[in-house]
Write a structure and sequence with these properties.
Length: about 280
């Protein structure tokens, strides 16, 4: 095997920003980048959390991982961080737009605010600000720096299978409850994840002449302590018969960030065990 093929998936020395890095999948994204030699830049709201994560990754994988407390809805914070990284490294090679509020299915004996007819405007604004406006601001500033890189780079937006299909609200229903009290997946999740697909297509054409690719991952749900009753129902909707494990998306991310996908641009890739195939 040639040296070029052996190094196809490597990220050695690449500076890659990961938003929402303290979350369940964000931490796995950062770990994968470090494992393949990249320099993960971990962004989240908790300074102590991302700095501790960065320290652990640096020690384990012998990379110079960094952690910053950044509110990605605050453009001045994003802009300053992008400038700092560019001044100190002379480049930014990649961006993983992972941060999002994950509105939970609400279960309450009182008025259920997650239902569309009750959904509060302030929660709508918060969810859209983090998941969609934040991704736009990061693309605007980190993406602009990537476009100055002589070798270009890669932007990966983390959408969802629910950016491709509507949530099946029957999964959350419980017998004996009136409709007004039934739990639902909130509207903002679908709107934000669908919006990221539109952002992906826009970015894929915007800096393509500068070698900047943009693609979207559409992960399915991750098993994370859900009730057995729910798992039984949702697994029946998935051809592979299970939800994802937290590390199921790491290989796909490395492929999308690395030279192994050098001609992949504007692609919307479901990784959902086949759920959106049915």
């Amino acid at each position: 095997m040639s040296v070029e093929l052996e190094s196809l998936f490597r990220l050695d020395g690449k500076v890659i920003v990961v938003t929402g890095a303290a979350g369940l999948l964000g931490s796995k994204h950062a770990e994968a980048i470090a494992a393949y030699g990249g320099i993960p830049v971990l962004l989240d709201l908790s300074k102590n959390t991302v700095e501790e994560q960065a320290s652990q990754l640096s020690e384990r994988y012998n990379v110079n991982a960094l952690g910053f407390a950044i509110d990605i809805t605050d453009e001045s914070q994003v802009e300053r961080n992008a400038e700092w990284l560019f001044d100190n490294y002379g480049k930014i090679d990649g961006l993983v737009n992972n941060a999002a509020n994950n509105p939970k299915v609400e279960e309450s004996s009182e008025k259920n605010f997650s239902r569309l007819e009750n959904f509060p405007l302030d929660i709508w604004n918060q969810d859209v600000a983090v998941g969609l406006t934040g991704a736009f601001l990061c693309a605007k500033h980190y993406g602009a720096k990537i476009s100055k890189n002589s070798l270009g780079g890669s932007i990966v937006n983390i959408s969802s299978d629910l950016g491709l299909i509507a949530p099946d609200q029957h999964l959350y229903m419980k017998e004996g409850l009136d409709e007004e009290f039934q739990a639902v997946k909130p509207v903002t999740y679908s709107v934000v994840k669908t919006g990221l697909i539109g952002l992906t297509r826009y970015l894929a054409t915007y800096w393509a002449d500068k070698g900047v690719r943009c693609n979207a991952m559409c992960p399915g749900g991750v098993e994370n302590g859900q009730p057995e009753e729910f798992l039984k129902k949702v697994n029946a909707k998935i051809p592979m018969g299970r939800l994802a494990q937290p590390n199921d998306y790491q290989g796909i991310l490395i492929w999308m960030l690395s030279n192994a996908s050098s001609y992949l641009n504007g692609s919307i890739i479901p990784i959902d065990g086949g759920r959106t195939t049915w």
